[in-house]
Amino acid sequence: MSEFPKWVTAVPPRPDLNTETRARERQARLTKPAGSLGQLEELAIRLAGLSGSDRPSVAAPHILIFAGDHGITAEGVSAYPSEVTGQMLANFVSGGAAISVLAREQGAALQVIDTGTLLQNPPAGVHSDKIARGTRNFRREDALTAEELFHGLDAGRNAATRAINDGADLLILGEMGIGNTSSATALAAALLDGDVAALTGAGTGLNADGISHKTRMITESLTFHELDRGGASAADVLLKVGGHEISALVGAAITAAHERVPVLVDGFICSAAMLAAVSTNPALRDWLLFSHRSTEHGHAAILTALNAEPLFDLGLRLGEGSGAALALPLLRLACALHNEMATFDSAGVSSIS
Questions:
Q1: Is position 320 annotated as part of the catalytic site?
Q2: Which of 41, 245, 296, 320 is flagged as catalytic?
Q3: Could you give the CA distance from residue 190 to residue 58 in angstroms, rounded to a whole number?
């Protein structure tokens, strides 16, 4: 396996620690008991440091949805057929999907990118940036070639660059791909040296027998690729059991960090991609915010590995970037509270000495 391109491993800038310090000092002067707004306080402080602004805001969020199909579906690991991936792309751009509604309601730009679905011709409104139609069945062979992996990374970089050039000050990352919970589970198990059974969830809605079969397919795949021994690099794991859209998520996040744009991470699939990205480029972690805790079994283990405290747990497992989009008002309100609340001095309120 070739090494990652240098832009993937190049260290991104650090957040502005001076601005972060000033934000923390301002929080201490606002008319409330210290810590009474919980995670919203820390969120505002982090956004100040990431934006380099004493008055942080999220004015132009962009949602990037990467789509790809997975050959592992041939092993019966999904409750839905692969055709659903392409059908959902049409639903995204026609405005009928959950993420479409959430984007519209919040004035967020939505970009849908086909990075590797089975579609010959994606629907109008979908940006096509793919080198192959679907991955190979990783139960039998490597999911991706090195060329395909690098193309996926570039597709993510391209999409992030388009959004940032269009004024994005926050990227919300999402995905669509039947079979991608199997890929994400295999990825997490390999990188965390974890118990596959503990990490495997229902995905699109498998019953207990389906989950048991999915667990066996992933376990056998990791043994086949010798990924059950620990110590594998993120590049090798992505190559052997990854996906086109998962690679694109990695490329998009790293690009955003280099451009000083924070990333709001969705659920299980996106978090697994960030696990691979951070294991490759640890400084990326500073630029990641985590929206929610998914009901997918493996998500908690990934969040722990990334030292991530999500903002809420609503029992979500849809994907599409929907959980991250639901968290967007919390970011905006955290900024508004930080920027607009009076201080003890300005309000003439006695503070605790």
A1: yes
A2: 320
A3: 35
